[in-house]
Design a protein that fits this description.
The protein is mainly beta and 205 residues long. It has no helices and 15 strands. It has a four-stranded antiparallel β-sheet with strand order 1-2-3-4, with no helix packed on it. A four-stranded antiparallel β-sheet has the order 5-6-7-8, with no helix packed on it. A four-stranded antiparallel β-sheet has the order 9-10-11-12, with no helix packed on it. Strand 9 and strand 10 (128-133) form a beta hairpin. The radius of gyration is 17 Å and the shape is globular.
Length: 205
């Protein structure tokens, strides 16, 4: 079935800066709130911000800017919303996760350590945050207060290895899917029979 276009953001061939309302330069991820407002991590390229729109695509505000202080970013590459409506932003080159309310008010932050580049975020129904970390080529589990719990994976170009993961999701049967840019293929991981549930990526929130 052919989809109906509702709204368009950005302008083809036009690169925006951090102050632009309707042009972007490096959109990396999007998260949608329950009321339909959506948030764009505009940070794959030179921009360093989160941009908020209403459900009809009307610009509301942006926040961020280049830096290491709370509320600033260096490559905000991923964004996710928890059950309370808080936004988790993967501040990739600052090796940290920042947490905001939906008006851009800084709430908290936690470091993912060095070396680390938190590239993809997945919030799960069991209230955990999973990160695809590009620097370490691992899938890492945290609680929502930022405490490290578990990690697995290794970098390489063989089946089961990871290289530059840019997408991560879990379907209803519990299979984990990763989109790998540099390896050029998607990967499916199937839970082993009797596996410890603490080591499995849960259902998306």
């Amino acid at each position: 079935r052919k989809g109906k276009k509702r709204t368009v953001g950005g302008k083809k061939g036009v690169k925006g800066d951090n102050n632009s309302q309707d042009t972007f330069n490096g959109m990396a991820d999007v998260a949608i709130a329950k009321n339909g407002d959506f948030f764009i991590a505009d940070g794959e390229g030179p921009n360093t911000r989160v941009v908020k729109f209403d459900k009809d695509g009307k610009f509301i505000k942006w926040w961020g800017g280049k830096g290491k202080e709370p509320g600033q970013f260096d490559q905000p590459h991923s964004i996710a919303i928890d059950s309370k409506g808080l936004l988790y932003v993967g501040d990739r080159s600052n090796d940290r996760i920042q947490v905001f309310d939906q008006n851009g008010k800084f709430i908290d932050q936690f470091s993912t350590g060095k070396p680390s580049t938190p590239q993809v975020l997945l919030l799960t129904q069991d209230k955990h945050l999973w990160i695809a970390d590009n620097e370490t080529s691992k899938i890492v589990k945290y609680d929502l207060e930022g405490h490290y719990l578990y990690s697995w994976g290794s970098g390489g170009q063989w089946p089961g290895a990871m290289w530059n993961v840019h997408g991560m999701s879990v379907e209803t049967e519990g299979n984990l899917y990763l989109a790998q840019v540099n390896n050029g293929w998607p990967t499916k991981f199937k839970p082993r029979a009797g596996a410890n549930p603490d080591f499995l990526v849960g259902q998306p929130m």
